[in-house]
Amino acid sequence: xxxxxxxxxxxxxxxxxxxxxxxxxxxxxxxxxxxxxxxxxxxxxxxxxxxxxxxxxxxxxxxxxxxxxxxxxxxxxxxxxxxxxxxxxxxxxxxxxxxxxxxxxxxxxxxxxxxxxxxxxxxxxxxxxxxxxxxxxxxxxxxxxxxxxxxxxxxxxxxxxxxxxxxxxxxxxxxxxxxxxxxxxxxxxxxxxxxxxxxxxxxxxxxxxxxxxxxxxxxxxxxxxxxxxxxxxxxxxxxxxxxxxxxxxxxxxxxxxxxxxxxxxxxxxxxxxxxxxxxxxxxxxxxxxxx
Length: 291
Hints:
Layout: H1 15-37, E1 42-48, H2 52-68, E2 71-77, H3 83-95, E3 101-104, H4 114-120, H5 132-139, H6 148-159, E4 168-172, H7 179-188, E5 192-196, H8 203-207, E6 212-215, E7 233-236, E8 240-242, E9 245-247, H9 252-255, E10 261-263, H10 269-288
Parallel strand pairs: 1-2, 1-3, 4-5, 4-6, 6-7, 7-10
Antiparallel strand pairs: 8-9
Helix pairs in contact: 1-10, 2-10, 6-7, 6-10
């Protein structure tokens, strides 16, 4: 991938800069952890198949581990691997005290039930926040391990001193990875939240009301300027790979003149997601090794 251009427009959320701040803090805290315990926090990743974006994302996560001083190990399996084999591996990783975080890269091949796999990850090692127990805790306002992308969005709002309380939020996309947890985390912060999806009627009339618009559908250029409220804050979480380039769900150039803030693709939410994962891995190690 080509290096990303420098962000000069104050309306554009530079996810790389926010990620650098998070990683810098994690690195310092990892050094303290190592001095106190004599070993590094450790993350195990599981990748099934040859999906090029997934391979890249896993690589980026391992690079981030190196930057902050976290140990990492990579478990790669061919596309045809049976679900039972992945579940058996997770069981072994759950029992290894030197592994503090377990991440299964999504999406998994169609013959593997993602929910069944996520349920096998020990909740205290669930650094991606997808285990139903951690999802349920989030529902009652206890945000321990939550999905990293929505947490990155919350962190970005905090960086710009934006309190979502009382704001109108529209989330387009209702996945377990982004849409549902993003809606719940903003509801926890007393925003008024509406979730739209492929079956929603008249999407434009919904998105035009949003003070904060979060889009995570994987439909390139879905959101145009006439769908966005003047002065809105827009988080583009969509990813479409085309001709070895990555595109978002928001028509960036069209929408930019109308917004207060917008996250670009690439260079927006993605780097923050990985930095939050580092934060979660350190937190998992600390929780599992309380003195």
